[in-house]
Amino acid sequence: MHPRLLDLTLSRSVLDRAAGRRRDPDLLKHLWEDPRTRVLRIGDARVPVTGPDDAPQLDLVAPDALGSPPTGTWVFLGQDLDGVPHVAVEVPQEAGWLGLRQLGEKLGDLAAGELTLAVAMTGWHATHTHCPRCGTPTEVVEGGWSRRCPADGSEHYPRTDPAVIMTVVDDDDRLLLGHNPLWPEGRFSTLAGFVEPGEPLEAAVRREVCEEVGISIGDVEYLGSQPWPFPSSLMLGFIARAVTTEILVDRDEIAEARWFTREELKAEVTAGRVLPPSGLSIARRLIEHWYGGRLDDGPRVWG
Questions:
Q1: Is residue 258 within 8 Å of residue 192, measured between CB atoms?
Q2: Cβ(124)–Cβ(145) under 8 Å?
Q3: pLDDT of 299
Q4: Where are the alpha helices (DSSP H) in 34-180?
Q5: CB of 219 within 8 A of CB of 182?
Q6: CA angle 276-280-281, nearest 5°?
Q7: Cis peptide bond upstream of 25, omega within 30
Q8: pLDDT per residue as tens digits for the range 225-258
């Protein structure tokens, strides 16, 4: 058994989602009347921040800073450890606002979880404005966690797309990394792919590895998960044991794949010939889990 991945960057939420409050039909009114309520303004997945660049904080405001309750997209995010309610409100983006990719590693546990949730939910609202059954514009209900069609009464909820992501290791304890043709030159990362309907997670790991690099997989072990709201994935991390080692890339998802020893990977990263994934992703943690410690970036780093 391998140790589980803990404290993944986007899995650090300590926010109580307080789902029971979503059923209150007057929730928005009550939140807006509560002077303790903290509002996170978000526009196109970007938010205002305060503080220094290396330790930013979300710029949360009281409801009266926005005036009347919002008429557009809003989401009740939950309550912090002190019972203070938090709400995300979609507003026009302003200059200087930052996104989760820039902020995720720098925020504290509460803020990182809050922003991850806000990005996921407002992203869902932006792409689900009409009823998929009849095309009628839908209404935001249940604290922003559902949309209802006023024409046929159907209710629609946010979906999460499960994706497997895995370190592939052979009998010599080498690590397999691949390069996607759309990535910057030199960037290598773990293999990953979406779970298909009716497919167990372990089967998805074996299928994706076989499809992308032609390698057969034996044992598969779960290590941890992290939400990835770009726009709506849940990354499920595994370590997979290779039964074969001959690489045959598909030339579609993977243009190049290589086996690395720890010494080889360290040398390539240090020299800047291999770019590891950013610390925001579970891919980086999976690689470091195999490596046995922190992998120092070389002179070139892709974020």
A1: no
A2: no
A3: 55
A4: 100-103, 109-127
A5: no
A6: 65
A7: no
A8: 999 999 999 999 999 999 999 999 999 999 999 9
Which pLDDT value is given to residue 7? 87
Residue where the block lists tokens 């009281």: 62
CA-closest candidate to residue 222, choices 10, 12, 4: 4
pLDDT at 10: 96
Instruction: Give pLDDT tens digits for 49-86.
Output: 999 999 999 999 999 999 999 988 999 999 999 999 99
pLDDT, averaged across the chain: 95
Pair 242, 248: CB distance under 8 Å = no
Other C-beta atoms closer than 10 Å to the C-beta of 299 total 8
- What the chain holds in terms of domains, given with CATH numbers, is 9-127 (3.90.79), 161-291 (3.90.79.10)
Work out the end-to-end distance of the chain between its first and last CA atoms, rounded to an integer number of angstroms.
31
Q: Are 281 and 254 in contact (CB under 8 A)?
A: no
Q: Is the pLDDT of residue 261 over 90?
A: yes
Question: What is d(CA 299, CA 303) in angstroms, rounded to the nearest whole number?
Answer: 13
Question: What is the Cα–Cα distance from 264 to 278, expressed in whole angstroms?
Answer: 19
- Best CA proximity match to 235, nearest among 276, 205, 199, 260: 205
- Torsion-angle region of 59 (φ positive above 0: left; ψ -120 to 50: alpha; else: beta): beta
- Res 87 pLDDT > 50: yes
CA-to-CA distance for 35 and 40, rounded, in angstroms?
A: 14
Name the β-bridge partners of 164.
193, 236
Q: Is the pLDDT of residue 300 over 60?
A: no
